[in-house]
Amino acid sequence: MPTASEIARRYARVRQAMAEAGVSHLIVAGSEYTGFGGAVRYLSGFRIVHRFAYVVVPAEGDPCAVYPSEARYVGAHGESWIEDRIFADHPGEWMRRYLEGRSAARVGVYGLDYVMPVRDFRSLEAGNFELVPFDEPFDMARAVKSAEELAEVQRTMAINEAGFWAVHAAYRPGRTQAELMAEAEAAFTRQGTGRQTMDMVLWGRHGAAAPEFKIPEASDPIGEDDLLLYSLEVAGPSGYWVEFTRPLCAGALARDTLRMLDAYGEYFDLARQTMRKGMTAHDVHRAVSRPFRDRGFRLGHVTGHSIGMTMIEHPRVGDGVEVELEEGMVFSMHPHAVSADESSCMYMQDTWLIGADRGELLSLVPAKVFDGTEQRPE
After folding, report:
1. 48: closest CA among 71, 82, 28, 14?
2. Model pLDDT for residues 172-214, shown as the tens digit of each residue
3. Which of 38, 92, 229, 237 could anchor a disulfide with 309, C-beta 3.0 to 4.6 Å?
4. How far apart are CA 63 and CA 69, in angstroms?
């Protein structure tokens, strides 16, 4: 559990954002949908095991946690530091009556973009108060990580690297994608991720990976010149997510793959230069995408995004996102270089810390293609 001072810091920043938006109450939604339970855990300590949950935060006074009554015995509700816990047959109806009883006029809602069940939204929309989308203000309030939070981010990074090295140790032609993935999942589970993993693979023959992410297969054996890009996305015991990818191939690489790797070499230098205080997310995107576009590649996936107790947080790194970066923000960066004919790609995923003068990679695993013969460093 976070310290009392860390919990107070979180509520102070969120209530400051509420005051700036002129909302008297904030509803924070969380879901079992992988990576989207973090906002509820951030404000309550509760880990969603199944279904969904809410935290309702008034501008003044104690918050309450709202759970669907059918999930009363799903999850350890005593983990929450919020003492006022409501189990409602219809959480949306309960929250509507609660807010109307407090004469709420403007209510912020985190979770309108992806998380909140439609049933509950419809009930809240029928209330005699205005619903104010609050995804971005809430994420910006928690974007700068405290020293306590950063220690947990680093802890998760070590777990993610252990998963990569488990895949690396098991990697050899003849095994299957699923067998390698199982080694990483075993390492993750042993170190406390539980179900908080979302792992995929990019794969292809002849030293080139196809651009579509997929679930690792348990059928075809891996060939020597297969290119495997395991996208490892995990949250450690404290709930902080990190993302990491390094390529695996024991054979020869395709020409476009080699050109994409050259672009990645430039990308890492440009990311270090631009992921610093005072730059904007737009500035970073334009800088780091240039090596790929100059070589005729397109970017098939979002360049990057803020990351924390929710897997994908605002701001994203992209064109027109003029959010100014602050020291202590943490980002997942993953330019997805796709060939002009969309037949191949390259994808390296890293978690970065925004610094005062330059960006800091939170992993020191070399940015290279691994062939399985490398020794894991101490």
Report:
1. 71
2. 999 999 999 999 999 999 999 999 999 999 999 999 999 999 9
3. 38
4. 19
Does residue 117 have a cis bond before it (omega within 30 degrees)? no
Give a three-class secondary structure readout of the chain. Answer: CCCHHHHHHHHHHHHHHHHHHCCCEEEEEEECCCCCCHHHHHHHCCCCCCCEEEEEEECCCCCEEEEEHHHCCCCCHHHCCCCCEEEECCHHHHHHHHHHHCCCCEEEEECCCCCCCHHHHHHHHCCCCEEEECHHHHHHHCCECCHHHHHHHHHHHHHHHHHHHHHHHHCCECECHHHHHHHHHHHHHHCCCCCCECCEEEEECCCCECCCCECCCCCCCCCCCCEEEEEEEEECCCCCEEEECCEECCCCCCHHHHHHHHHHHHHHHHHHHHCECCCEHHHHHHHHHHHHHHCCCEECCCCEEECCCCCCEEEEECCCCCCECCCCEEEEECCEEECCCCCCEEECCEEEECECCCCEECCCCCCCCECCCCCCCC
**CA–CA dist 68, 88 (Å, integer):** 5
Sheet holding 336-338, edge to edge: 298-299, 336-338, 345-347
Report pLDDT for 373: 94
Domains for the chain: give ranges and CATH numbers: 4-141 (3.40.350.10), 147-361 (3.90.230.10)
Identity at 219, one-letter amino acid code: S
| Phi, psi (deg, nearest 5) at residue 238 | -85, -5
Task: Region of 104 please: left (phi>0), alpha (psi -120 to 50) or beta.
Answer: beta
- Indicate yes or no: pTM above 0.90: yes
At 245, the amino acid letter reads T
